[in-house]
Amino acid sequence: MWRGNAWPATLLIAGMVGYGLFVSLSMTTWTDYRQLLSDSVFLESVGLSLYVAVSSTGLSVMIGALLAAFFAKQTGWTAHLLAIPLFIPHLGAAYLSLLYLSDLPVIGPHEGNHFSIILTYLYKEIPFVFFYLLPVYRRLDHRYEELGLMLGLSHLRRFWHGKGVFLLFPVLEAAFIVFAFTLFAYEVPALLGVTYPKMIGVYAFDLYTQGDLSSQPTAFAISVVLTGMLFVLLLLFTRLIRPLTDRISKGRSE
Prior knowledge:
By secondary structure, the protein is mainly α. It starts with 6 loop residues before the first helix and ends with a helix.
């Protein structure tokens, strides 16, 4: 009955997020948000989280898209090797980084450049992006590029009209998923990150669990701010970017 229907999962997730947001709002006041915006530790945590999320997302999407473009033309089983990291949870990937990168001074865990966190996310998210985009690449109609060649279009314009307009939204969709996850994640930065500054997920968790009840409203305020940021990004993505890419795709394909 529910096979192929995304509404049950959507309603369940929306209910969980809505309930969590309601509880967080009930535990905070406007003073908590004003103090949060003037908290230098919180602002540094947001900056660090954005650095890690943007770096991980950009590299994962770029490498994953290139691999999908290459293996879309292959028929063997080699591409399935990239599925191996998907069977290892993020916490397990973090432990692998702790085990194999500890002796490397530049990219080892607990280094200020946070390369070990970024590499762990690359190990996990590149396969995700690859398998997310592989079916899209395999459905592309290469006759559009051939038509562009007949019309004398440049290589860049042939790629855009033949593939780019059809890849734009799936690539942005994959990027949004990876960015949202890495921005608010806890497990990997908690295990591999430094004690200061902490990524925002670790900072909020520590505030809530450190035993000082006076700090808990700040943790709830952080959860509200992060949820609001994610909601704004989702709204921009669904209301602005997706209609734009749909119009571009339909305009080129008709």
